[in-house]
Amino acid sequence: MSDKTxxxxxxxxxxxxxxxPSNLNRDDAGSPKEAMYGGVRxxxxxSQAWKRATRLAxxxxxxxxxxxxxxxxxxxxxxxEELAARTGLDPEPAARIAAAVLAPLGITASKNKxxxxxxxxxxxxxQIEKLVDLVADRAAELATLDDKKLLAELATAEVKxxxxxxxxxxxxxxxxxxxxxxxxxxxxxxxxxxxxxTHAAELEFDYYTAVxxxxxxxxxxxxxxxxxxxxxxxxxxxxxxxxxxxxxNLGNPKAAVEAASAFVSAFVRSMPTGYGNxxxxxxxxxxxxxxxxxxxxxxxxxxxxxxxxxxxxxxYAEPSATALATEQTTITHQWGAPALWTGITHAxxxxxxxKALGTAFGPALTFPTLIDNLTAELSR
Amino acid sequence: xxxxxxxxxxxxxPLQAWGDHRAVVDTRHTSPMPTKSGVIGLLGAALGRERxxxxxxxxxxxxxxxxxxxxxxxxDYHTVSDYRGVPLLSSKVNGKGRQVGTSxxxxxxTGERFYLQDAAFLVAIHGPAPVMAEVTAAAKAPVxxxxxxxxxxxPTFPLVLGTTADxxxxxxxxxxxxxxxxxxxxxxxxxxxxxxxxxxxSAVLDDPNGDTILQDQPLSYASSGPRHTSRRVRHTLIxxxxxxxxxxxxxxxxxxxxxxxxxx
Lengths: 380, 264
Known about the structure:
The complex is a heterodimer.
Chain A: E1 10-22, E2 34-37, E3 40-45, H1 47-60, E4 69-72, H2 75-87, H3 91-102, E5 121-124, H4 125-136, H5 139-143, H6 147-154, H7 159-164, H8 169-174, E6 190-192, E7 195-197, E8 204-210, E9 224-242, H9 243-250, H10 253-269, H11 276-279, E10 287-293, H12 317-333, E11 341-346, H13 351-361, H14 367-379
Antiparallel strand pairs in A: 1-9, 1-10, 2-3, 3-7, 4-5, 6-9, 7-9, 8-9, 10-11
Chain B: E1 4-16, E2 27-28, H1 36-47, E3 62-69, E4 72-80, E5 89-93, E6 99-101, E7 109-128, H2 129-140, E8 160-164, H3 168-174, H4 181-190, E9 198-206, E10 212-220, E11 227-241
Helix pairs in contact in B: 1-2
């Protein structure tokens, strides 16, 4: 957990996204998940489904290698290499120092191969850099000591803390819990709510028949029949990131800002893939609003407790956008809880909608500009 | 006797989940109301406590919970897999205490999670004034991201309704019904347009002489295994003013309702 006196910032992400008839996250009966809210049945996509989609989207974002993790048995080799590269030390003394640095961790060597640890260790490339930082300044001096003195010299080095902080960004964001190995849990720095439709929608079934192409002409009937549950919805998606927790997890303010921005991009652009080939539901959001807050995260789902109605052919997206703007403005003014910074991406041209969104979140930006402005704000 | 304060929280969201002692790996239950360990845990997170920190003064607080809108049970089918596409680990450990892989390799584990959907609770937390001042400030500006019993259940605004010097029992009987205008409309629709002056909601509060024992008094939140002990509570039904307009044809809706205690 972060120091109680550090500056706190939460990054709230609000997304409105319409999907056509689809089944992106199904239950054990094969039907799209649902929940009751405001007394009506609504399509739902679980938090877990969208977090998985978000993690997979990280790969597509081209995140730098220094921010990702390595899973290997050869941490000692890796450390020796980095140490030699930084200090110009010969491989042999570098390996000796690397082994001594890792000794306090109690990482035992493999029985078969002396240079390997007994199990795969998952650590951040940045964490190796921190280990090198611990000894780089006095590497030449350490190289002259014998093994026993070297171990004694490094016994107090803060090796454990270097390896228990500065995690790779996916571990930093989503956390890690290892029940039977104490001390290496990581508190998650993000929260993702279940995506919920802003309106009531009933589950429907698509009854389908498949024809057997080589069926004899005198035989009747389909080769196969079945049914797929589906529905169509304008989803409200909400997620929040704790920048201070991410800072603690990654051990680097700049990396924390980059990871937070990467999360926003990945969360916004990702989508669960369930029945993707049958329904082709891959849409882009119609609205993305981001709020940086210093007091607490604020989930705006209450805007849709009274289900949105689509009177007069308006569809659900535009009245949902207006409801979202109204809720944000209400919380800002009536409850005196303004956000530190807001930014929005949308393409609603209706005069009232655009005006309400402008009042609540500011002028509409392109999504890349929104991310740039957010990164600049978080870096301040 | 030092001064005491009661903090009022509104726990309302599309989904909440208040796990109980039945917690097992692949089935996650929810209690019908926020548990004491759940609420104290939420306050601990707000204060920025680590999971393995001693509870200290938090363990001494007393609470009362009122089910203003009881909500309904949602069963969620859940699958677990490794996003890197590698087989899951089994529950067996090798000689070094490390988990070994499933054999034959399994890629997906199924389970179920239960949630309370569409519910709203009033929670009153009572304790010494200095402790409650700290807790209240933290609930308004939490260190950690808060959740209503499960990570995927963010609370909605406002979470903190205020503080008072009144004891829990008075707060629970005196505070307004938390049903939103929309929820009130739904209530009337469900009760065929009834417009009673009051509705009865159920409440559970700490009481050393209570006749029910709950196993949700927190001892530790350590990730190696949270521990609980028992506490005595008392169940009650509390009539709350509805503010409904009693039209000339309105029924009172106050007939005998044997299922009221179940919150149906």
